[in-house]
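Lecture notes, part 5. Sequence design as translation. It can be helpful to think of inverse folding as translation between two languages: the language of shapes and the language of residues. The source text, in structure tokens, appears below.
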């Protein structure tokens, strides 16, 4: 097939890990006889350095007209002034909003050979296979924001329609898995959470009667995610809680550098990014873990291009590289020589 893919590498380790994902996409295209056109565009602090907006109009236009976007990471200590009106992070929020990418899928499947990398006991990790479905274009991230003389406000707002559509995404995904949904909210305190719980309950009982639904308060969920992680199948939650819980879930896998994500809307067009950030502390050293970025490319093949066999082949190659012990410093056991970013990418390519 022919496909056009926007590549927005962004900041910090973004370009280092994205280039490995790009190499893998090219290799998949060659192996399976596809024609992928990969088009780079500036975003984030990298765009600001070039005198552009964090999300230049041309970059947004490219993302709108391509089949999918591969995204690296965003954020820079050079633009961290809390009073600044223009910040790199606005680019990713703008892309999610403008492209209508309201559903963020963050799968967490710890690999047996990486048990050492997780702070959790081995027996707790047995059987863990969960999917965080994070609402991505509503809630406190997109409410009215205000900074006055001696106060600041972030408004959290959810509409019934916003909750219904994310509940349906979670319901459909649960039907293809173990048919269990844990909806996470803070309904004992927040109005938006009480609405969330009511709407999710209705959508599930009306449209997904075959899916088991439970509700958890976010504080308790944060604890249970570490004490009984294997109990989860699909976790559906609002924007901010999903942001926090998915980073926490990375501890199960062993590193933020392993977790990919897919951001989807009503069409096939999606944006794919590792859940990690730009990691300025290790940027430029070629030691970042590219597996999350490469796994994000696999999700792109699956969800935007409907190339399931190709996606599975890429995921298998990543799993193979990890099982063979090609591990970057974030997941290498103490005392073992760590692979660099390029080496890890090459180990995946070799197995494709
Ligand atoms: C993520 C990130 C972003 C978010 C930041 C970079 C704005 O943490 O994708 O999880 O908070 O959504
Ligand atoms: Mg986050």
């Amino acid at each position: 097939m022919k496909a056009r893919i926007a590549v927005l590498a962004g900041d910090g380790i973004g370009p280092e890990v994205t280039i490995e994902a790009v190499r893998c996409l090219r290799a998949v295209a060659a192996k399976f006889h596809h024609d992928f056109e990969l088009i780079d565009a500036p975003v984030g602090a990298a765009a600001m350095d070039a005198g552009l907006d964090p999300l230049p109009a041309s970059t947004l236009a490219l993302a709108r007209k391509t089949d999918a976007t591969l995204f690296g990471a965003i954020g820079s200590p050079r633009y961290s002034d809390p009073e600044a009106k223009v910040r790199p992070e606005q680019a990713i929020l703008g892309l999610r909003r403008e492209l209508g990418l309201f559903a963020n899928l963050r799968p967490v499947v710890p690999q047996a050979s990486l048990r050492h990398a997780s702070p959790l006991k081995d027996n707790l990790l047995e059987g863990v296979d969960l999917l965080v479905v994070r609402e991505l274009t509503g809630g406190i991230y997109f409410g009215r924001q205000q900074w006055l003389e001696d106060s600041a406000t972030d408004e959290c707002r959810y509409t019934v329609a916003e909750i219904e559509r994310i509940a349906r995404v979670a319901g459909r995904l649960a039907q293809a898995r173990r048919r269990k949904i844990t909806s996470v909210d803070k309904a004992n305190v927040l109005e938006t959470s009480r609405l969330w719980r009511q709407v999710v309950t209705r959508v599930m009982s009306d449209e997904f009667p075959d899916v088991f639904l439970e509700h958890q308060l976010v504080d308790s969920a944060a604890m249970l995610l570490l004490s009984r992680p294997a109990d989860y199948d699909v976790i559906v939650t609002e924007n901010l809680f999903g942001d926090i819980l998915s980073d926490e879930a990375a501890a199960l896998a062993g590193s933020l550098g392993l977790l990919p994500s897919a951001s989807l809307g009503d069409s096939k067009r999606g944006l794919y990014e590792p859940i990690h950030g730009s990691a300025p502390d290790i940027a430029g050293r070629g030691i970042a873990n590219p597996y999350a970025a490469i796994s994000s490319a696999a999700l792109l093949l699956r969800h935007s291009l409907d190339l399931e066999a190709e996606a599975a082949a890429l995921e298998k190659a990543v799993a193979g590289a990890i099982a063979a012990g090609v591990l970057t410093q974030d997941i290498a056991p103490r005392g073992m020589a760590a692979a660099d970013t390029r080496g890890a990418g090459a180990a995946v390519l070799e197995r494709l």
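The translated text above is only one of many valid answers, since several sequences can fold into similar shapes. The mean pLDDT is 97.
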